[in-house]
What we know:
This protein has 311 residues and is an alpha/beta fold. The chain is built from eleven helices and nine strands.
Amino acid sequence: MDKQVCVIVPVKRAGREFTNHIRSLLELDHHSYEIIIVDDGLEEIPEALKQAKDRLLVLKSQSKGPSYARNLAAKSTQAQYLAFTDSDCIVAVDWLKELLKGFEIFPEAASCGGKQDIPADATFFERKVYKLLKKAGIVAEYTQYTGSKISKVNHNPSCNVMYKRSVFLEEGGFLEGLWPGEDVELDYRLKKKGNIIVCNPRAVVYHHRPKDLNSFLRMMYRYGDVQGVLARRYGFFRKVQIVPLAALAVLTALLLGYKTDFLIIRTELYFFLLLLLLLIYFAFDLFVFFLALSAFIFWHCGFFKGIIKGR
């Protein structure tokens, strides 16, 4: 008998949290689901996979990337729904039930996503990154979902989302070769064709974050790069893609004001006021403030590289 839901997870590096990840998948409260783990280039098989081999299916994708890995798994199941998460996430026990509720409220929906929270064992650095991402949700549309109401959204991250398999395959799945941002690109295509995307904040995954500054800055550069690539390919269709244009406009105005002296208040004071507003927004958390400035620089470097050179 075919399962109702197939949980799909690509994995390339199995970190310390992978054991808890597998355990959380096996303990899901749902009567009809299967698990497909896609080995996207593991150097060795983690012990957690060996112990759970009788309760899940492992596919190999020859290191072709997360998009290919997810598409491969989607074609290897007959389940009605495809639930995607990442190997560094711990899923709540009612995760699948809550995602399915999105389709109960919106039967015509193509997909339903959920909320990301911080794991109980997250490090100090991870917690600061999570705080920054939550604050940035107003433009990034990444961790902004609060409350308990199931509602329509523009995008759900692939670490916590469920698609109708028929719609997913009809649209061609994730754009292979694109990572990160393959989830943004797919949701853009779905929305453009009139599909509905919803989010249930009660569907929770506990997502581990970069554990050091170097990993965090690489992540921000990649995020910026892919947004530049998507803006180059489709035009500006997300709020976060407008940020570089706004930043350039503000910087140009300030520089012109400094040179021509048409601003009543000196340029230095505008910068000071801007920094003060940011400090207030981040509740005077200097660590998060530093992360925000660093992320701003690296994200923009990636964005301009992506929009100029593409992939």
